[in-house]
UniProtKB/TrEMBL annotation:
Listed name of the protein: Probable cytosol aminopeptidase
Domain called Cytosol aminopeptidase: residue spans: 365-372
InterPro entries assigned: Leucine_aapep/pepB (IPR011356), Macro_dom-like (IPR043472), Peptidase_M17_C (IPR000819), Peptidase_M17_leu_NH2_pept (IPR023042), Peptidase_M17_N (IPR008283)
Source organism of this protein record: Kineosphaera limosa NBRC 100340
Pfam families in alphabetical order: Peptidase_M17 (PF00883), Peptidase_M17_N (PF02789)
Assigned keywords, A-Z: Aminopeptidase, Cytoplasm, Hydrolase, Manganese, Metal-binding, Protease
E.C. numbers: 3.4.11.1, 3.4.11.10
Keyword Manganese belongs to the record: yes
Enzyme superclass (EC): hydrolase
Positions with a binding annotation for Mn(2+) 2: 285, 290, 308, 369
Cofactor note: Binds 2 manganese ions per subunit.
Highest taxon of source: Bacteria
Subcellular location: Cytoplasm
Encoding gene per record: pepA
Cofactor: Mn(2+)
């Protein structure tokens, strides 16, 4: 994790590497420096941007050296995309940069900062010129840069060390801004909070990127225990306790592996939590490797299946971040950990298992294992009577077909909760889209031999999986359904294409920020 600071240092004196934000204006690139650059540097860069045909489009980074008036030996321009449109719908022309910069979306700044950080591997320090005075903008810039300055190297050998050092992510990040004295405390607090959350998200990325022979249910549980802050209690159920406790879904999925399953509960219950803020339950899918079981996947489809525990990683990271921030709300995370393998005791299509809440489930396809472990976790969470259950899972390829690889689906049994989750994701900069669970979907899961089948009709796979999980969310003391939401993060949990913005290749830690923002908003209600 790089050192992150809000620095009042003059831009002209910033050493090593400097990044400025550039927007795509109606008449060409617009330098967004809020008058922080010396005049000669501004004129030089503005001319160079035009000469090199830099557009200011999102994810565009250009490099400049020898910029007059600056101590930095390298200057980067990071594109934020188009300037906002005026009331008539026309794109602004960039004459009033500071006013227009104030309207640049926070996520655009976050992504541009990440792209700049990715472009300065091997440099010692990165200073980013804040384009306006919003504390939230300072935080977004810091967060994006810290996520962009990420590289997973835990599995690299000794011989690679020298080369890795030359391209190591930048270890120090300064957001160059000098807010007014009465606003500095708020600004520094926002940057510090952003750094806290991003540190946990980077840890979630580490978990997703670990090799499955290193991270398996037992070692995952140990890693979580070692990383937990003092304010979080960690409890673990092993394979024998899971069997005794009636967790047929987790046991059934894990029984084909030599590495037995686990269910880890992480609880944060601060003294200042109140009945008004309520209590939340987060449930994360933790399939540390998914071979498909007896319904084995094609070899090519297994390559990235170490990422099938991305939901559990995000839940653990979010609960820990909430504790680190000291939010006054009770949160419990349930990590449903198993390895889905075709061993000699693997479950079969046609098996019937009894879940934690007593429902029986007929197994149809052993490659639809995630909903089984999640159903047990959701049922356990429901027993505690939370005000909301949110589950996070790399659940269905169908959701990727619908929404692509950068957007998660949001399902819920409660319209207000679905709106809250969507708002939390938008505020944190994570792309989601609300999807329905239509009334006819449940009938497709009728079983001849059990209470429910765990799969349904061929079409609408993401809805079918969500409908199955909803079946286990339970009711409150008055018999009303417990509000339940489901994030299908199959697409954005792992990036196996080109890096973009602050998203590097590999694990992303997606949903960590959404869950933290959801808890923060609830704690302030």
């Amino acid at each position: 994790m790089p050192d992150i600071a809000l620095s009042p240092q003059p831009v002209s004196q910033a050493p090593d590497t400097l990044a400025v934000f550039v927007a795509k204006g109606g008449d060409g690139p617009v330098l967004l420096d809020a008058d922080r650059l010396p005049q000669e540097a501004r004129e030089h860069l503005s001319d160079a941007l035009s000469q090199l045909r830099v557009s200011g489009k999102a994810d565009e980074v250009a490099r400049f050296t020898g910029v007059p008036g600056l101590a930095a030996t390298l200057v980067l321009s990071a594109g934020v995309g188009p300037l906002p449109k005026d009331e008539s719908g026309q794109q602004t022309n960039g004459q009033d940069d500071a006013a227009e910069a104030a309207q640049v979306p926070l996520e655009a700044l976050r992504r541009a900062a990440g792209a700049a950080a990715r472009a300065c591997g091997g440099r010692k320090r990165l200073g980013l010129v804040a384009p306006d005075e919003r504390p939230a903008a300072f935080a977004a810039i810091a967060q994006g840069a810290a996520l962009g300055a990420y590289k997973f190297t835990d599995h690299r050998g000794i011989k690679a060390a020298e080369g890795l050092a030359k391209e190591a992510p930048v270890p120090a990040i300064d957001v160059l801004a000098d807010p007014a004295a009465d606003e500095r405390e708020e600004a520094e607090a926002e940057v510090a909070a952003a750094a806290t959350v991003v540190a946990r998200q980077r840890w979630a990325r580490d978990l997703v990127n670990m090799a499955p022979n290193v991270l398996y249910p037992e070692s995952f549980a140990l890693t979580v225990r070692e990383a937990a802050p003092d304010s979080v209690t960690v409890e673990e159920l092993d394979e024998e306790e899971l069997a005794e406790g009636g967790f047929g879904g987790i046991v059934g999925v894990g029984q084909g592996s030599a590495r037995p399953p686990r269910l880890v509960t992480i609880s944060y219950s601060p003294a200042d939590a109140s009945e008004e803020t309520g209590k939340l339950a987060f449930v994360g899918k933790g399939i540390t490797f998914d071979s498909g079981g007896l319904c084995i996947k094609p070899g090519k489809s297994m390559i990235t299946m170490k990422c099938d525990m991305g939901g559990a990683a995000a839940v653990a990271a979010a609960v820990f971040a909430i504790a680190d921030l000291g939010l006054p709300i009770e949160v419990t995370g349930y990590l449903c950990l198993a390895e889905n393998m075709p061993g000699d005791n693997a479950q079969r299509p046609g098996d019937v298992v009894t879940m934690r809440d007593g429902q029986t489930v007929e197994i149809i396809n052993t490659d639809a294992e995630g909903r089984l472990v999640m159903a047990d976790g959701i049922a356990l969470a429901a027993e505690t009577g939370p005000d909301a259950i949110i589950d996070v899972a790399t659940l269905t390829g169908a959701c990727m077909v619908a929404l692509g690889t950068r957007t998660a689906g949001v399902f819920a049994n409660d319209d207000a909760l679905q709106g809250e989750l969507t708002s939390a994701a938008t505020a944190s900069g994570e792309a989601v889209w609300p999807l329905p669970i239509t009334s006819e979907i449940r009938a497709g899961m009728d079983s001849l031999v059990a209470d429910i089948s765990h799969m349904g009709a061929d079409m609408g796979g993401a809805m079918t999986a969500a409908a199955f999980l909803r079946n286990f969310a339970g009711t409150d003391a008055d018999g009303r359904p417990i509000p339940w939401g489901h994030l299908d993060i199959a697409g954005p949990a792992y990036n196996d294409s080109s890096p973009h913005g602050y998203t590097v290749k590999g694990g992303t830690g997606f949903a960590t920020r959404t869950l933290v923002e959801f808890a923060r908003a609830r704690s302030e209600d």
